[in-house]
Automatic annotation (TrEMBL):
Species in which this protein is naturally found: Saitozyma podzolica
Region (Disordered): 95-132
Superkingdom as given in the UniProt entry: Eukaryota
InterPro entries associated with the record: MMTA2_N (IPR019315), MMTAG2-like (IPR039207)
Protein name per its UniProtKB record: Multiple myeloma tumor-associated protein 2-like N-terminal domain-containing protein
Domain called Multiple myeloma tumor-associated protein 2-like N-terminal: residue spans: 9-88
Biased composition (Basic and acidic residues): 113-132
Length: 132
């Protein structure tokens, strides 16, 4: 009984619709969502105008991937350090600073660490000698 549309050309055209055509259309303001789906103007170039509709899962996946890359980098550095020590090379200063808890100040002067602890211990011994 149903052979399709009564007249040809009606109830169709959804496959021919393009938002890029709306951008160039003189009546683009008549389309719902024209400002978002059919960006026009310099301010919208290279902008994420659909930021509100992005999935948080994408952001979580990016953060997880970045964390994984950082972990792999730390592992590779640790392996390189272990290999250099096993081959008899001196350990990196960066590794020494991380292991010993010694940081550096603005001028590259060591801050904190074993040396300061030793100085504090010697000062305590001197105070005890003065009291005795």
């Amino acid at each position: 009984m149903y052979d399709g549309p009564v007249r040809g050309g009606n109830r169709g055209g959804a496959g021919d619709f393009k938002w890029s055509a709306v951008v160039e259309d003189k009546d683009r303001e008549n389309y719902l969502g024209h400002s978002v789906n059919a960006p026009q103007g310099r301010w919208q170039k290279n902008k994420d105008i659909h930021w509100y509709a992005r999935d948080k899962a994408d952001l979580d996946a990016d953060a997880a991937a970045q964390e994984k890359r950082a972990e792999m980098k730390r592992l590779k550095e640790a392996e390189e350090e272990a290999l250099s020590i096993a081959l008899g090379f001196a350990p990196n200063k960066k590794a020494e600073a991380e292991d010993g808890g010694v940081g550096t100040g603005a001028n590259g002067v060591a801050v904190g660490g074993r040396r300061d602890e030793e100085i504090e211990r010697l000062e305590k011994e001197e105070k005890q000698k003065e009291k005795a």
